[in-house]
Amino acid sequence: MPGLLFGLGLLLWPVMTFYTNSTIHMIAHGSWAQVLMVTGAAELGVAHGKLHSQYWRLCAAVAMPVSGAALLLHEQQAWLFSRAAFLHHTLGWTMVIGSVFPLVQAFRPRSVTAATGFAAVFVVTAVMLFCDRDVAAVFGHLSQFAGAPHR
Q1: Per-residue pLDDT reduced to its tens digit, 88-123
Q2: How far apart (Å, rounded) are the C-alpha atoms in residues 89 and 112?
Q3: 3-class SS string, the chain
Q4: Chain center to CA of 73
Q5: Could you tell me if 43 and 1 are in contact, meaning their C-beta atoms sit under 8 angstroms apart?
């Protein structure tokens, strides 16, 4: 997981540079890339025994609300405007609210509730991403104005 976080942070730099169409997108992707790389590096250091303080876990507690804010800020449409807007809002708020769990873990590292909640945030995120497939049944019948379905 730490290597994945660091790798995702690295991959967000080209997205920020080449695939953004506004300043808000550039700032959102840039800040998201930075916190993912710092969090991945801190978690790698803790996992390899190079960093010994439990407070390095606070990096995840900072990365989650920054990631959530990046998702919320760079989606400028209302919740129900489109599927993409709905997904950005639900993912963003899930990350912002779920940041409580790594915060608790930093101060109570043996808390089973905090560890379970932290893992549940990622399970819920995966379910949201899975349900947002092109013609996911959770969204019901697609409007005739949505265009041809892509399969």
Answers
A1: 899 999 999 999 999 999 899 899 999 999 999 999
A2: 28
A3: CHHHHHHHHHHHHHHHHHCCCCHHHHHHHHHHHHHHHHHHHHHHHHHCCCCCCHHHHHHHHHHHHHHHHHHHHCCCCCCCCCHHHHHHHHHHHHHHHHCHHHHHHHHCCCCHHHHHHHHHHHHHHHHHHHHCCCCCHHHCCCCHHHCCCCC
A4: 13
A5: yes
Phi and psi of 141, rounded to 5°? -75, 130
pTM surpassing 0.90? no
What amino acid occupies position 47? Answer: A
Which residue in 134, 138, 133 sits closest to 146, CA to CA?
Answer: 134
Let me know: does 151 contact 134? Beta carbons within 8 Å.
yes
> 10-45: per-residue pLDDT in tens?
988 888 888 767 788 788 888 888 998 999 999 899
Q: Regarding predicted confidence, which is higher, 92 or 148? A: 92
Q: How far apart are CA 89 and CA 79, in angstroms?
A: 6
CA–CA dist 69, 49 (Å, integer): 31
